UniProtKB/TrEMBL annotation:
Keywords of this entry: Disulfide bond, Endoplasmic reticulum, Isomerase, Redox-active center, Repeat, Signal
PANTHER family, sorted: PROTEIN DISULFIDE ISOMERASE, PROTEIN DISULFIDE-ISOMERASE A3
Protein name: Protein disulfide-isomerase
Catalytic activity: Catalyzes the rearrangement of -S-S- bonds in proteins
Organism: Dioscorea zingiberensis
Length: 474
């Protein structure tokens, strides 16, 4: 059977990116900026002069960058008066001369903000707020010591407020191997967690004078409020913090305090089990109890659990191609990108259905638009359920565009793609096609990722060989 040769025209923009023609409107003479402007020519020299500098990588057309710009400027002005001053800088990653720099710092979307320490030797992602006051408070913590010394009960009460994860090292004296390892881990993870250290356990909530030093105690506002470890191997200590700082079942609702845990849930590499239900349902407590029990059963088995309120989960429903009529609904996604779902699930069915998933006896769910009944336009419509027939197994040369209906670059491409399709419509060996990437699942081998509109050409099901055509399509 002939093998299709497929060219992919990639015209999908990431959901968090927004296309706009310019970063700022020209309005007379510009005021002096407190944000340093860096580029490939002066970046290394400038960073090398600072033990702590914050760099935003932006694109002039990005709407989120435009929204951030005045907040970033305001924060830079405030932090310029800090002792010592905190330097904020920016790089136009859209400039051709700066693209290698952006690649070095793994810039995959805009804006991307990096914290560079020790003359650029240490690189961390900025994970704080995007408004001026929040930026200022976050960076003040980041520029100070990685771990705060707790000297009194008042110190402890201010730092450990019961609303967030806080990690404390207990040491008989602030020296020695264990103390140094704790401080190294605190420095490495300070962008994600708050750390403290003390020599007196009685100062802490749930204080216990019988605690044997050294020990690391993690406080959290969910599940058991306190967990300890005395394993001071670096990898083990980092793993303890990462695992212990995530709820057994992550709660997905409109409470902003839960959002950091939701982000951690979706960023972790585990399989993911998600139960979506209307929290006003009279049976919600029974669902929560059964789902919690299942999560406890699978703890440590590389599967994470989340329960989402229907009212807060509309974005997830759109992403997964689900409908409210399927609620109560349980969905499992695995690391291969496959999805499994059970619609209108009953509480007592949760454990048995998860066992079927564990045993490999479930059929994956594929998000797809309906196959078109008529598909006779010059640009053929491809959906997930006819991808094999129209593209992969067609034996033809196929130019396939993945697009998003709301994408400005995609809209500009429409007449061009149609013109190309018309010019090839009498060639039986060529197919020009398009696929809505927001409403259809796409096989991982296509490597469709959201960024700017670009053209990628590759051949599938042939010996590994990729044509080097990866240029922006504006």
């Amino acid at each position: 059977m002939a093998v299709a040769r497929v060219w992919i025209l990639f015209a999908v923009a990431v959901l968090l990116l927004c296309v706009s023609p310019s970063r700022a409107e020209e309005s007379g003479e510009e005021e002096p900026s407190f944000v340093l402007t860096l580029d490939a020519a002066n970046f290394s020299e400038t960073v090398g002069k600072h033990r702590f500098i914050v760099v935003e990588f932006y694109a002039p057309w990005c709407g989120h960058c435009k929204n951030l710009a005045p907040e970033y400027e305001k924060a830079a002005e405030i932090l310029s008066k800090h002792d010592p001053p905190v330097i904020l800088a920016k790089v136009d990653a859209n400039e051709e001369a700066n693209k290698e720099l952006a690649s070095k710092y793994e810039v995959k979307g805009f804006p991307t903000i990096k914290i560079l320490r020790n003359e650029g030797k240490s690189i961390q992602d900025y994970k704080g707020p995007r408004e001026a006051d929040g930026i200022v408070e976050y960076l003040k913590k980041q520029v100070g010591p990685a771990s705060f010394e707790i000297k009194s009960s008042d110190d402890a009460n201010k730092l450990i407020d019961g609303k967030k994860v806080f990690i404390v090292g207990l040491f008989p004296e602030f020296s020695g191997k264990e103390y140094e390892i704790f401080m190294d881990v605190a420095e490495k993870l300070r962008s994600d967690y708050d750390f403290g250290h003390t020599s007196d356990a009685k100062l802490l909530p749930h204080g216990d004078s019988t605690v044997k030093h050294p020990i690391v105690r993690l406080f959290k506002p969910f599940d058991e409020p306190v967990v300890d470890t005395q394993d001071f191997q670096v990898d083990a200590l980092e793993s303890f913090i990462e695992v212990s700082s995530v709820p057994v079942v992550t709660l997905f609702n409109k409470d902003p305090s839960n959002h950091p845990y939701v982000i951690k849930f979706f960023n972790n590499p585990n399989d993911k089990a998600m139960l979506f239900i209307n929290f006003s349902n009279e049976y919600v407590d029974e669902f929560k109890s059964k789902f919690q029990g299942a999560a406890e059963h699978y703890k440590g088995k590389k599967i994470s659990f989340l329960i989402g309120d229907l009212d807060a989960s509309q974005g997830a429903f759109q992403f997964f191609g689900l409908s409210e009529e399927q609620v109560p609904l349980i969905v499992v996604t695995n690391t291969d990108g496959q999805k499994y779902l059970k619609a209108n699930v009953e509480p007592d069915q949760i454990a048995s259905w998860l066992k079927e998933y564990e045993d490999g006896s479930l059929t994956p769910f594929k998000k797809s638009e309906p196959i078109p009944e008529v598909n006779d336009e010059p640009v053929k419509v491809v959906v997930a359920n006819n991808l094999d027939d129209v593209v992969l197994n067609s034996g033809k040369n196929v130019l396939l565009e993945f697009y998003a209906p709301w994408c400005g670059h995609c809209k500009k491409l429409v007449p061009i793609l149609e013109e190309v399709a018309v010019s090839f419509q009498n060639d039986a060996d060529v197919v020009i096609a398009k696929m809505d990437a927001t409403t259809n699942d796409i096989p991982n081998e296509f490597e469709v990722q959201g960024r700017r509109t670009k053209i990628k050409m590759l051949q599938l099901n042939l010996p590994p060989r990729r044509m080097n055509c990866n240029k922006d399509f504006a």
